[in-house]
TrEMBL record:
Residues 28-259 form the ABC transporter domain. One of its GO terms (molecular function) is ATP binding. This is Hydroxymethylpyrimidine ABC transporter, ATPase component. The keyword Cell membrane applies.
Length: 287
């Protein structure tokens, strides 16, 4: 398995991820995961306690929780950037037996200022192999889809924050990952662009069977794009709810049609009430 950090190829820590144990249709399997961070005084503060969940091939799962619940730390553990103190993370290979590939898109775009938009877009591919003419053409097509076709030869300093984030997403998706980790990727985007990119995330499952795990504070976004929403709560964090999102839409499910589904408000209330409940409980416990 290989890992792409916002499309930067980075080998995971030895032994951090097992690519042989995830079986069946599970793309990602997290088992009894526990982790803590150590303070300057040498005190271990637990972040997670015995987390268990899986993500199937082609499934989109959103993780929501209060600030400080450890959502980004969870991504670092899944990607192999840090190793868990106990428990296990396994990522399956591709259906043809070849190694799977994780793409991890951070909140920051990490664009190289000396490279053009097009050169930044193909950087992930470049770190794996020689970039071909077909790769540049595919990159140009994707950039055009995101409204960046006219700035392909521009440099990052001339782009808005939202435009830079769209370049980063293009770079992430161009490496053909089997598992995509998205950490608040659309927070800097205008609403119309956010809806368009949500549609693109949902299209990944149809086009390539790619699995997606999304960390977001936007409850509407989580419900609209996801097959499941996992609610993290408490300290140390644990899974308080694992919601199977089933929406009745007119025609194909899109970012817009999902929000118009009759069940949407019910799911929104369930997630919101869960977040509110566990935030109050946590505040009361630490007051």
């Amino acid at each position: 398995m290989s890992m792409s950090l916002s499309a930067f190829a980075t080998a995971p820590a030895a032994g951090a991820i097992d690519t042989t144990r995830a079986s069946g249709t599970d793309r990602l399997k997290v088992q009894q995961l526990s982790h803590a961070f150590r303070t300057a005084d040498g005190v271990d503060v637990p972040i997670f306690e015995r987390l268990d969940f899986s993500v199937k091939s082609g499934e989109i799962v959103s993780i929501v929780g209060r600030s400080g619940a450890g959502k980004s730390t969870l991504f670092n553990l899944v990607s192999g950037l840090i190793q868990p103190q106990s428990g296990h993370v396994s990522v399956s290979a591709r259906e043809d037996g070849s190694a799977g590939r994780i793409a991890y898109m951070l909140q920051k775009d990490l664009l190289m200022p000396w490279r053009t938009v097009l050169q930044n877009a193909v950087l992930g591919i470049e770190l794996y192999r020689k970039v071909k003419a077909a790769d540049y053409e595919r990159a140009r097509q994707m950039l055009s889809r995101y409204g960046l076709g006219t700035v392909a030869d521009a440099y990052p300093h001339s782009l808005s924050g939202g435009m830079r984030q769209r370049v980063a997403l293009t770079r992430t998706l161009l490496v053909d990952p089997t598992l995509v980790l998205l950490d608040e990727p659309f927070s800097a985007l205008d609403y119309e662009t956010r809806l368009a990119l949500e549609d693109d995330v949902m299209a990944l499952r149809e086009q390539s069977g790619t699995s997606v795990v999304l960390v977001t504070h936007d409850i509407e976004e989580a419900i609209a794009v996801s097959d499941r929403v996992i609610l993290l709560g408490g300290r140390p964090a644990r899974i308080e709810d694992d919601i199977d999102v089933r929406l009745t839409t007119h025609g194909p499910r899109t970012a817009v049609s999902a929000r118009e589904a009759p069940e949407f408000r019910t799911f929104h209330s369930r997630v919101w009430n869960g977040l509110r409940s566990h935030t109050i409980q946590h505040s009361g416990a630490t007051a």
